[in-house]
Hints:
Layout: E1 2-6, H1 15-29, E2 33-41, E3 66-71, H2 77-88, E4 92-97, H3 103-112, E5 118-122, H4 132-148, E6 151-154, H5 157-165, E7 171-173, H6 188-194, E8 202-207, H7 216-224, E9 229-234, H8 240-252, E10 256-259, H9 265-274, E11 277-280, H10 289-296, E12 301-304, H11 307-312, E13 318-321, H12 326-338, H13 345-352, H14 358-373
Parallel strand pairs: 1-2, 1-4, 2-3, 4-5, 5-6, 6-7, 8-9, 8-11, 9-10, 11-12, 12-13
Amino acid sequence: MKIALLGPDPSFKGGIGQYNHFLAQEILREGHELLFVGFQRQYPKFLYPPGTGDGAGTGPERAYTVERLLSWDRPFSWLTAAKRIEAFAPDVVVVPWWTFFWYPWFAPLLRRIRRFPRVVIAHNAADHEGHGLRGALSRFATRRILAAVDRVIVQSAEEKRKVEALGARAVAVVHHPVYPQFRATVGRSDARTSFGITPDAKVALLFGAVRPYKGADLFAEAIAALPDITGIIAGELWDGALANRLRELAAAHPNLRLLDRYFDDAEGAALFAACDVAVLPYRSVTGSGAAMAALGAGRPIIASDLSLFREILPAPLARSFTVGDTADLSRALREFFSENNKLQSEEALAIIHGKFGWDRLVREVSAAATEATN
Length: 374
């Protein structure tokens, strides 16, 4: 089967590039032919936190080539990409949808290639922080994109209901596959040494880009109330007011560490090796790369009691707390460490084996092409 995939690759920051990378690798592993139409430039620099930018380096080793045809500063780069897809003549085209920023490129591209089956993987049915004009633009763009394609893949039953309400026709649920790159490459002792963590410390980790909806402030406030637990927030800070609040708490509480930068795969693996538990204090969630990173690293999880987390996290792997409740998060952290509930990596891997494989995603993509020809 010939599959065309659009979007960023992992040489750009963000979970979508990582997701596309493992999807592309699995497409090739299963013997399909792949065209990866990628970005030359993803976003203007002013959209990133000060002093940072779009690039994440060369990214991991890959078995595919990225044709960098789409660029935010070239309004008609969508046409170049569409013509390349037409020349490839795919059996199916896969497009991620996560931000309304790319609507002016993706909408005409999808119209141009409408004779090929088109699958959208909807990472966000609605903007997490979409209020006012931003929210209205997000809803408009998402509705138009979802209604224009042949199949939509979402990551939870709740998101399925949302995209159907927005006009999506054929919708399938495929839970976010697990990220394998954070499996420890160093031992716990060496990992802790590299981050200046004592061997006997109780360590809770919040990992990934720090945005208001992910609840880093709740985590910081909970850690501030637990001086015997070390809390680490590791990721770029994307919101000024939130960054100021986190820095204020970190300055007042030595057990809260704020690592404000992008972490590559090797550093991320070391962080997971060094921690005892990953914390996901989200206020809302549509899919969580951080959750799948923690599962891939074999780490137990403390998560907000949201429907997606109840849906994807097996009971032996996670415990929950009331959404937005700092005191209840503190309670969950205390109980976790008092019960010495440190799940072994092998046990975690046994639980997730087969449940969150990338092959399930490729099967769903292939089904869209098969149904279109019948």
